[in-house]
Amino acid sequence: MLRLRVDRNKCTNCRFCESACAFTHVGQTVLKDSRIEVVQQAVEDQSYAIGVCHQCSLCPPLDVCPTGALTRDPRTGIIHLDRALCPPGCRLCVPACPLAAILDGTAGLILCDFCGGEPECVKVCYTEALFVREYTLTPRGLGKHAATRGHRVAVTRGNGHQAEEPSAVMASETPDVPTS
Amino acid sequence: MNKMAVIDLTARTVEVGGVPEDLRRRFLGGRGINTHLLFHMVDEWTDPLGPENVLLLGAGLLTGLPWVGGTRCNFTAKSPETGHLGDSAAGGHFAAELRFAGFDHLVMKGRAERPVYLWIHDGRIEFRNAAHLEPLNSVETQNAIKAELGDVKIQVAAIGPAGRRLVRWACVMHGVGDAWGRTGMGAVMGSKNLWAVAVRGNGAIPVADPARMMEVTQAHYAQITGTKGFLATSNYGTLIRLNNTRTQGYEGGFNHQQNMTELSAELDSDVFLDKYESAKASCFNCPTHCRHQHEVVLRDGTRKRGGGPEYYGVGGWGSQCGCSDWRTILEAWDYCNEMGLDTGSATAYTAWLMELYEKGIITEADTGGLALKWGDHDAIMGVLRQTVEGRGIGALIAGGWMAAARDIGRGAHRYFDHVKGLSIECDDVRGHRAQVLGLATASRGADHLRSRFTLEEFSLPEKVTEKLVGVPIPADALSYENKEHACIWTENICAVADALGMCKFLTKWLSVGLLGVGEFRDAIEAATGTAFSVEELVRVGDRVTNMERLFLVREGMSRKDDAPPEKFYRPWTHGPRAGTRVEPEAYEALLDRYYAVRGWDRKGIPGGETLRALGLEKEGAFLADRREVRFVWNDAGKEGAVHAAAQG
Predict the structure, then answer these.
(1) In a 10 Å sphere around its CB, with 0-12 CB exposed, 13-18 middle and 19+ buried, how is residue B368 labelled?
(2) End residue of a domain, out of B184, B200, B216
(3) Whole-number Å distance between alpha carbons of A77 and A1
(4) How far is Cα B155 from Cα B150, in angstroms, rounded to an integer?
């Protein structure tokens, strides 16, 4: 099962992912309609918060959604947001997502739809801060890294980290769920 | 469609209108339209620091689109440092956000009564009080404005304490390391009591053909990331030049007295990457993450993080000021960025003062007690601190080098290397003839981003350059043959790139495999729906260059100002190519050929035929009763123009 993964340490804040996402989805560069968000808090910050859906195996927003506007496709594992089913002003899912992946678009809440398996943001991310990885679901539902897919070898340096083939254990990778 | 706003700071009024279609067609945007506006809005009598000067902000035509590297915008005004054309571009995220906020071009006139900053968001422009920003440096100012307006995605262009105190070579800062640095745009902003411009917007930039735009973007992305040089530029950034110049003998040493120095090998870009680099940063929509971020423990033990450095600062404080300690260089670099000083001028001024001190032209009595020994940490930081605080030697150079040279006297001006009043960069290009010509004819003064034929350094085969330029350029850098064509080709491609908001690191300016005018045409067509031919685009570059030339001629410039610095006529002292110098006769012949190809007369004045072909005859009308104007600096430190001999 393919998942979108993020390595924050490699992000250089070019926001090409935002442009590509917005342009793919609405045909314009309205970055508010981007399903991924890169935020630099203070101007001197050297690392950036990246808000995008990781298709986590344990998804708190799925649990809190009162109407079934959020659903998971059992075949692909991708979480879908059907805005038509959102109760007006609900927004329960927004704070529930630990990855800040449910964003405010021009016309309401928006969520990464994984572009049908080939995310545009990944195509333009040269430093491989964004990448697609294959995971298999274990019976307990926790994601387990199985194989690398579509991964180019970056010869260039990322953010102070020598880029290399991802090892089996990604220490810098954002975990699937908060540990508690 | 995006707008142009005329902001009158005196009257606190804003006029908003569309960008005229014929200007778009003739000048595209960015530097192109800015040059047109500047020519018509100021004249030779305008005081750069007076309310009558205009500050123009122009985003490139393709800035903010989902295209590769359209990141830049230009600040343009009459320069307080050089007294003529002032223009500077910077990348980062500001330009794109300005366009998302609904504006392509801002014209800022007059002078605000009290310090203000502009808050531009979703088509609205607000004047806001800035008095509380007084104690803050440029980085703190940006954070304070973000916090005040309650949005972390706001992008700010702000001046620092140097700009507020009207240091004539102050810059405008964005982020920690992006600066509209050269020609003193920060001082113009400070003179208008405009301390910052904050932008944020969610507007759309219309794209004529989204599907085609996507195709073009993918093709250009692949083209850029597929070049051989891409990994080097994204790894080393501009510091790549540090090693080239150091090993091949064209680094400027000790204020261009030497072309190679015996400084330690510490001054190497790999040393920086290993010891001090903490991250990399990109500009908006650019895969070339060339901007370094550093973390350094300074000499006093404090830990400091910042953006940069770039080659200009490292070469400048390094070989030029004789300092091989990265901690000093990074401290000076960060200090300049925070205070809003142009690192290009800061390094040139420091190196100049150090040579004057070495020669005994200035002493501790002039320098406020500083012993300006080569490479000395306290000397380098002392000059910068005194400049910002307005005391000692700093009070002297804050008014620009010309005023300082006049006040020092004793022939001090002879030791300052400049073209048209702007300091030359820290490398020494006298062994590259097209680059010498480019440096000497660059419109805003000595400059590598207007007309430096960078490809000359790669000794490309003639058949490659013939395909690019149209005429074969000799692979030998020392040859003068056909170099005028190389210079003109670069000038045009740079002018078009600036008008599009394109970074030159992604263009043929840097490498043959990168984007050229043909690729620009595809992107413009997909984005705007306007069809340009390659020849038309080149003519836009021609038009911008000629417009700038007309501006300079009106300021009193001519052939005499198209000369390389005097030191270039002396031989190189060190290295594999010692003895190389610019031969005056050969250079003058090259300049003649350059003028001829450009369609200018022997004095460098654009001819009527050339102007007619470019549609600039109205602007050129003043040439009929042109007078040669010479700048003098009066006692108050303000420049005035004096008419000298009338010319035919």
Answers:
(1) middle
(2) B200
(3) 7
(4) 12
Q: What is the pLDDT of residues B248-299, one digit of tens each?
A: 888 888 999 998 888 878 888 999 999 999 999 999 999 988 999 999 999 8
User: pLDDT per residue over B358-393, tens digit each?
Assistant: 999 999 988 888 999 999 999 999 999 999 999 889
Residues of B in contact with A46 (CB under 8 A): 278-279, 281, 293, 295, 305
**How is B371-409 classified by DSSP, letter by letter?**
---TT-HHHHHHHHHHHHHT-HHHHHHTT-HHHHHHHH-
Tokens 């020519």 locate to B39
pLDDT per position as a tens digit, B147-197: 999 999 999 999 999 999 999 999 999 999 899 999 999 999 999 999 999
Q: Are residues B157 and B26 in the same domain?
A: yes
Q: Does A48 touch chain B (CB under 8 A)?
A: no
**Closest chain A residue to B155, measured at CA:** A43
Mean pLDDT, rounded, of chain B = 90
Whichever domain contains B604, its CATH number is 1.10.599.10
In sequence order, the β-bridge partners of residue B174 are: B178
Contact A127 B235 (CB under 8 A): no
From B280, B283, B287, residue closest to A159, measured CB to CB: B280
- Between strands B103-109 and B3-8, the pairing is parallel
Kindly list the residues from chain B whose CB atom is less than 8 angstroms away from the CB atom of residue A127: 280, 289
Contact at 8 Å (CB) between B9 and B15?
no
Secondary structure element (H or E) that encloses residue B109, with its range: strand B103-109
- Rounded to a whole number of angstroms, the distance from the CA of B534 to the nearest CA of chain A is 27
pLDDT of residue B586: 94
CA distance linking residue B202 with residue B191, whole number of Å: 31
Search chain A and give the residue with CA nearest B220. Answer: A124
Question: φ, ψ for residue B606 (rounded to 5)?
Answer: -55, 135
User: Which one of B362, B387, B422 terminates a domain?
Assistant: B422
Q: Is A172 on the interface with B (CB under 8 A)?
A: no
CA distances from B295 to A134, B17, B139, B275 (A): 36, 45, 16, 9
Angstroms from A126 CA to nearest CA on chain B: 6
Q: B443 and B510: one domain?
A: yes
Chain A interface mutation, best of B285, B286, B503, B506, highest count of A Cβ atoms under 10 Å:
B285
- ipTM of predicted complex: 0.86
Question: Considering chain A, what percentage of its residues have pLDDT values greater than 70?
Answer: 75
> How close, in Å, is residue A90 to chain B by CA atoms?
23
The pLDDT tens digits of the residues spanning B29-86 come to 899 999 999 999 998 889 999 999 999 999 999 998 888 888 899 999 999 999 999 9
Confirm if B28 and B20 have CB atoms less than 8 A apart.
no
pLDDT value for A1: 74
Q: Which domain holds residue B329?
A: 226-422
- pLDDT recorded at residue B90: 93
Same domain as B241, residue B195: no
A152-166, B221-235, B246-260: least confidently modelled range: A152-166
Determine whether the interchain pair A44/B206 forms a contact, defined as Cβ–Cβ distance below 8 Å.
no
CB < 8 Å to A156, chain B: 231, 234-235, 289
| Partner B contacted by A3 (CB < 8 A) | no
Check B281 against A13: CB less than 8 A apart.
yes
pLDDT for position B6: 94
Domain boundaries, position A30: 2-148
